[in-house]
Amino acid sequence: MGIVKAVAVISGGDSNNNVRGSIQFLQDFNSIAGGAATLVKGRITGLTPGLHGFHIHALGDTTNGCNSTGPHFNPLKRDHGAPSDQNRHAGDLGNIIAGVDGVAEISIKDIQIPLTGPHSILGRAVVVHADLDDLGKGGHELSRTTGNAGARVACGIIGIQSSV
Ligand SMILES: *[C@@H]1O[C@H](CO)[C@@H](O)[C@H](O)[C@H]1NC(C)=O
Ligand SMILES: [Cu+2]
Ligand SMILES: [Zn+2]
User: Fold this and answer.
1) How much helix, strand and coil, in percent to the nearest 5, is found in the chain?
2) Contact call for residues 23 and 156 (beta carbons, < 8 A)
3) How many CB atoms lie under 10 A from the CB of residue 47?
4) Integer Cα distance of 110 and 101 in angstroms
5) What is residue 63's predicted lDDT score, i.e. its pLDDT?
6) How confident is the model at residue 35 (pLDDT cuts 50, 70, 90)?
7) pLDDT at 100 exceeding the cut of 80
8) Nearest CA to ligand 1 atom 1
9) How many angstroms separate the CA atoms of 164 and 59, rounded?
10) CATH superfamily of 3-160
């Protein structure tokens, strides 16, 4: 299978923000037979400084902006958690951090977001939130479902990218 690549072009959910970016997803099947992690790399600009929840949501639908992308991608029907938890939504990638310049540089390696097979994230969406994700531990009523990360400030649909 070689290397499988995908890309999501990120833009603001409502037209009233300036969040932009691009995220690449790469799974290299040459490196580890069968169990290759997905590398998530990119840059998002126009954010407020600080932590922002960062997830794969279930649907690649932006008919009504990022609100149409559905809940966190959760094929195994688990509770919301931290990326380091085994028991988490597959889409739980934790937080990204924007500097004072509003720029977040992203580099994440994760084993629960494959680009092939029944739990593939292709055709779904990556979403950036206004607030930080409490990773399921905030004690808020939304902690166990969304990490209480607030509004969806930007998103992009994960599509197939040329592998050459
Ligand atoms: C998305 O939902 C939020 C809160 O539920 C709302 O404030 C916002 O206006 C919605 N955005 C769109 C584009 O419908
Ligand atoms: Cu989310
Ligand atoms: Zn979640």
Assistant:
1) 0, 40, 55
2) yes
3) 25
4) 27
5) 95
6) low
7) yes
8) 67
9) 27
10) Superoxide dismutase, copper/zinc binding domain (2.60.40.200)
Predicted TM-score of the model (pTM) = 0.95
The CA-based diameter of the chain, rounded to the nearest angstrom, is: 46
Give yes or no for residue 34 having a pLDDT over 70: no
> How far, in Å, from the CA of 88 to the mean position of ligand 1?
26
Tokens of 1: 């299978």
Task: List CB contacts of 149: < 8 A, sequence separation 6 or more.
Answer: 52, 53, 55, 129, 130, 131, 132, 133, 134
Task: Check whether 11 has a pLDDT greater than 70.
Answer: yes
> Mind listing the pLDDT tens digit for each residue in 113-141?
999 999 999 999 999 999 999 999 999 99
The token duo for 71 is 């809940």
Cα of 149 vs centre of ligand 1, distance in Å, is 14
- Sequence ranges of the domains in the chain: 3-160
CA–CA distances in Å: residue 34 to residues 2, 30, 39, 108, 161: 11, 9, 15, 19, 21
Q: Say if residues 26 and 41 touch (Cβ distance below 8 Å).
A: yes
Q: If you average pLDDT over every residue of the chain, what do you get?
A: 94
Q: Which residues line ligand 1 (CB under 6 A)?
A: 13-14, 64-65, 67, 151
**Does residue 94 sit in helix, strand or coil?**
strand
